[in-house]
Amino acid sequence: MKIIQSTFLVFLSLIIFSSCKMPDPSDPFRRFSMERNLIVVISDIHLGADPAYAECTKNLTALEEFLTQIRVSSNVKELVIAGDLLDQWYIPAHINTYQGKDQADFVKRIAAANKGVIDAFKRIIRDERILVTYVPGNHDLTITEANVDLILPGINQKRDKELGLGTYSPQGYPKIAIEHGHRYNFFCAPDPFSNQDIAPGSILPPGYFFTRIAALSVSQKYPPAGDILPVITPNVSGQESQNLLFAYWKLWEWTLNTFHITNKFNEKIIVTNIDGLTGTYAVNDLLPYQTTPGGFIDVDLYKGIQDTWTQRQAHNNVAVPIPAMHAISKSALASETDDQAVIQYFQNPKSNVRIVVFGHSHVPTIQSSLDHLGQKSIYVNAGTWIDVNPHGKTMDFVVITPQVDDCCSKTHVRLYNFENEVITLMAEDSVRL
């Protein structure tokens, strides 16, 4: 009997000892633990309604396996989806997004097309052992709380009062901020000021149309350009508004030189019927134009957008205002998303956040810097789960291991990859909060 008791005590002590150790960085989910404390963040899954054009199809099986590993883990406390879970932007321009129906039907079609993944999320939510939280991104900008709950009943949604935005700090961790990152992007932040004459209440920014054109280019297999861009030159008047509109034109010039389409720019090919927009538009409706070289520059859709950036930022709760010229000219750079995490949180004297997690750029990375008080702070981008990521790896995720209550413990931030259904640690850092 004494031998049995001794063996049992040794076994029990090993369990207790192992539960107090940090999770194995190379395999964060498969370690016995007496405590659930890990916060897992994924972003930019981009589930589509039709596998013919959706960006995430080949990776769905791996995503199901990843979610299953999280579900059966004994140490995951929260799973946070940092935006772009559902995709109503990446749809070739000629396709009617809602097929003559409504957003609820569209969301249900996404659920049906990605049933295995949606069911995996549902199982985690129903178990009630792991809190699943969703914050919106730009590709699911106008999808309502009710329609997310329609396919994922019981999911915790963290939203601003303004549709299309949200920032989440896990309970008990106010120095951690998780959001998608699109509120700082000129092309992707909600825009409740443009196009109100034709679509009252619309908040779709110009990035929506950019993505519809890019998706068309991909569906046409990157063809030679079917039309020639007109030449636009800076307005010689030197007016700030005109200079901003010229910078806006340069981004559209880059877009159409990067994503060629076979169609002429005057063809009415962009079918909307979404967020109050009912027209079918041509590329020319989006492009700034000029009747005389060096003369006045104008635009039809998003007329005056260059002059409302200050109001958009106020509406979208941007803490540190971004100059309009900077916001326009840097909007296509992934590094600008990273930079704004530092500017909006770490350099902001009104912020005490020390760890920021964004998505949006699809570029997984960890960067450390000093905040306004000289304290080390960590920014991490959660990457993406789309099939092909031109910016690097795909199937990325973040694991935050909060510090324990002692003098020496630190909060660990780790960036992982799940390609080939193998967990690979890509980068890590830590900070004492």
Task: Give a description of the structure.
This protein is α/β, with parallel strands linked by helices and 433 residues long. It has 10 helices and 16 strands. The protein has helices at 2-20, 60-72, 103-113, 115-127, 145-151, 207-219, 240-258, 309-315, 324-329, 334-346; strands at residues 38-42, 76-82, 131-135, 156-157, 167-168, 176-179, 270-271, 280-281, 289-290, 297-298, 355-358, 365-370, 376-381, 396-401, 411-417, 424-431. The chain has a 7-stranded mixed beta sheet with strand order 4-3-2-1-14-15-16, covered by helices on one side. Strand 12 and strand 13 form a beta hairpin.
Give the SSE layout:
Elements: H1 2-20, E1 38-42, H2 60-72, E2 76-82, H3 103-113, H4 115-127, E3 131-135, H5 145-151, E4 156-157, E5 167-168, E6 176-179, H6 207-219, H7 240-258, E7 270-271, E8 280-281, E9 289-290, E10 297-298, H8 309-315, H9 324-329, H10 334-346, E11 355-358, E12 365-370, E13 376-381, E14 396-401, E15 411-417, E16 424-431
Parallel strand pairs: 1-2, 2-3, 3-4, 6-11, 11-13
Antiparallel strand pairs: 1-14, 5-6, 7-8, 9-10, 12-13, 14-15, 15-16
Helix pairs in contact: 2-4, 3-5
Brief overview:
The protein has helices spanning 2-20, 60-72, 103-113, 115-127, 145-151, 207-219, 240-258, 309-315, 324-329, 334-346; strands at 38-42, 76-82, 131-135, 156-157, 167-168, 176-179, 270-271, 280-281, 289-290, 297-298, 355-358, 365-370, 376-381, 396-401, 411-417, 424-431. The protein has 433 residues and is α/β, with parallel strands linked by helices.
